[in-house]
Specification:
eight-stranded antiparallel β-sheet; about 200 residues; single chain; disordered C terminus; alpha+beta; 8 strands
Length: about 200
């Protein structure tokens, strides 16, 4: 019976890994959209609000909102892990497992490019992905397990105490799948049609 369970677990694991490899290629995602929105206008007002509402819907907190410069950025937010089924700030299965196994966070940078007549001509989204790096703690007894995530254990590199000040967020590049998802959501909410392009 135990052997059958081990075989079943192995097969399920292989299927999960294979399914993750069958997702869209990085080049299939888009992060730019050609638009044609006169500014100032009621359409531009609705478009600008649709962008912010979409970010809020995906639980990103707004940081900088500068309509004149055509820029919106969000605060970094801890990424969704496996059990947080009500959240949607990761798009692929690989990103979901990565955020489950590692402390990850994401933040969004959106820009609207103006044309010569001051109309908005292109919408561009960049989703930045970062991973938390913390010095390794010395783990040399069973009692240390209870203090492993605290700041009372020394580090393996000689630090007497490892505190939050020693942690740092490492840039992991862009998240093209989430860029594509946000772009689609914004366009659907704003009901704007245009030519989508890869970057």
């Amino acid at each position: 019976m135990l052997i059958h369970r081990v075989h079943l677990l192995t097969v399920v694991s292989l299927l999960a890994l294979t399914a993750g490899c069958l997702g869209p290629k990085r080049s299939d995602y888009v992060s730019k959209q050609g638009v044609s929105v006169a500014d100032p206008s009621e359409e531009a007002d609705q478009f600008w609000e649709a962008i912010q509402d979409t970010f809020r819907r995906y639980r990103f907190r707004l940081d900088r909102v500068d309509r004149r410069a055509g820029v919106i950025t969000t605060m970094p937010v801890a990424s969704q892990h496996f059990l947080e089924f009500w959240r949607h700030d990761v798009d692929t299965r690989d990103d979901l497992w990565e955020a489950t196994l590692n402390p990850m966070r994401r933040w969004v940078e959106l820009s609207v490019v103006r044309g010569p007549d001051n109309a908005w001509e292109q919408l561009s989204i960049v989703v930045h992905k970062e991973r938390l790096a913390s010095p390794d703690r010395q783990f040399n007894s069973t009692g240390a397990a209870y203090q492993y995530f605290g700041d009372s254990l020394p580090s393996t590199t000689g630090l007497v105490q490892v505190t939050a000040e020693h942690n740092q967020w490492l840039d992991q590049g862009r998240d093209p799948a989430m860029e594509d998802r946000l772009l689609r959501a914004i366009l659907k909410r704003a009901e704007v049609e245009g030519e989508r392009s890869r970057s």
